[in-house]
Amino acid sequence: MSALTALSAAQAIGRLKSSLGATVVTPRIAAEGSRLLARLSQTIRNPSVWKFSGRAAEARALSRHALATDQGSAEPAKTQALSGVIVGSATLASDLMRARMILQGKTNAIPI
Fold this sequence. Notes:
Helix content: over 70%
Number of helices: 4
Strand content: under 5%
Shape: elongated
Low-confidence stretches: none
C-alpha cells in the first residue's frame, strides 16, 4: 500500500469509527461497520488482491445501507452520524481498490 493510500484509508477508518460510536446509529449499521473494521485489520496484516476486493465490497455495501437508513431520518444527529458512515465507508472502498491495484503492480493506479 502506498503511503498516500494508507493515509487516506486511515482517515476514512477514523471517520468511520467516530461515526459508528454515535449513539444514534442503528445497531445493524454499527454491527456491520464493526465487522468491516475487524476484518479490515486482518486484511491489512495479510494483504491480498482478493481480500482488498472483498473489504472494498463490504465497505460499499455499508455505505449503501447507511444511505438507505438515512433517507427516512428527520433527526439531525442521526443524519450527521450516518453521513460520516457513508463518506467514511465510500472513501475506504475507493482506497482499498487503489491499494488492490498497487498490490497487483499496476502503475496506472489513480493517484490521490
